[in-house]
Amino acid sequence: MKDHSVTKNLVDEVEEQRHEVVVDSYTQMWSELINQFKAGDVEIDPLYQRGFRWTVDQQTRYIESLLLNIPTPPIFLAEKQNGSFEVIDGLQRFSTVVKFFCEEIKGVASNVSAAGVPVENDLNIPTVLSHAPILKGLEKLSRATMPDTLLRTLRYARVQVILLKKESSPLAKFNVFTRLNRSGTTLSNQEIRNCSARLTESQFADQLMAVANSDFVCDALRMSVKDRASMGVQESILRLIAFGNYKPTTAKLEDFLDEVMYSISSGGMKFDENEKKKVTDVFKVIHNAYPDGEAFRFRKNGKFTGGFSPNLFDIVAVGIYLNLSKCKKISVERMRKLIVELHDQDEAIKLTGAGSNARLKMIGRVAFGKKWFSKG
């Protein structure tokens, strides 16, 4: 038998949340979108733009689809408070067209790729198409060499646009961007969080980046090049702030970090200079004891080995964060001893082993770290 009170509450909740999301849907010619981008009325957040990773072959197939009028997925835009628009999904497709027409947009084309950006993903360098599955004649064509008739076909090709209007709540914008970009994305979770936070017009993502760019922070973590490139350092700093100030309400770590990112970005917690200093001081304490990432590696046969361990990070970094005044006063030798000896504790072994992402184990690691480093 249905519980009608539960049903009514759920229906009311659905109605309330639906009103938070205000959308419009329409079709638009690519020429209109290109002109809007050129005028600065449609923008791509620089952090989001990092996610443009389609190969030339993929870009060629999309151009071919437009020429042949093959249906393609929509572009999602978010309306900002000033009336301009921001791309929140469809980055690969939007960037493909912008790159192909970059000479028209920029007025001049570049032959030199920006530092760290592959030529095939640099929006300032015109695309030279590769082999296409259907239209064999597209190979080696560019905007400068493509027949005018086909260029017009591209410009006048239509795409569906779904607009998240500015009347939508900040939380709705955050959730829409996060969900859209977690489906088959080439972006990391933290890259998505950073871009989502920008939609709330918060500077928190930039503040995280500023801390993450500190040499002593990077050295203390010593993450792989791949993890650093996917914002692993920033995510670890967010993780520290999250476990140091919030209690997980969900068993999924990524959902918990999403909630904290939104909470801080929307003013739920003040990340001011004092808090920033507290976070950096945690890493200074750790760096002084172990400057090459040893604090977050497991010990085997008396040596620190393996890669960065997020579970050890929860114990060590959060434990020090919650006992910072005391930890700043103890000697380097004492801090080293505390970190070494925790590896022999049965509770620590249990909390960092199998099933470590369970909610109770996440809470347990924080509690253990708080107790362990309170010894001073």
Short synopsis of the structure:
With 376 residues, the protein is of the alpha/beta class. It is 53% helix and 9% strand.
Helices and strands, with pairings:
Blueprint: H1 4-18, E1 23-29, H2 30-39, E2 42-43, H3 46-49, H4 56-67, E3 75-79, E4 85-89, H5 91-100, H6 102-106, H7 148-156, E5 158-164, H8 170-181, H9 189-198, H10 204-212, H11 215-221, H12 225-229, H13 232-245, H14 253-265, H15 273-289, E6 298-300, E7 303-305, H16 310-321, H17 324-329, H18 332-342, H19 346-351, H20 359-372
Parallel strand pairs: 2-4, 3-5
Antiparallel strand pairs: 1-5, 3-4, 6-7
Helix pairs in contact: 8-9, 9-14, 10-13, 11-15, 13-14, 13-16, 15-18, 16-20
Organism: Pseudomonas amygdali pv. eriobotryae
Domain GmrSD restriction endonucleases N-terminal: 32-195
Protein name: GmrSD restriction endonucleases N-terminal domain-containing protein
Report on the structure:
By secondary structure, this protein is of the alpha/beta class. The chain has 2 domains: 4-173, no CATH class; 188-375, no CATH class. The chain has 20 helices and 7 strands.
Structure keywords:
alpha/beta, 376 residues, 20 helices, GmrSD restriction endonucleases N-terminal domain-containing protein, two-stranded antiparallel sheet
Order of helices and strands: HEHEHHEEHHHEHHHHHHHHEEHHHHH
Largest sheet: 5 strands, mixed
Based on CA atoms alone, the radius of gyration comes out at 25 Å
Query: Which stretches of 5+ consecutive residues score pLDDT under 50?
Result: none
* Strands side by side in the biggest sheet: 1-5-3-4-2
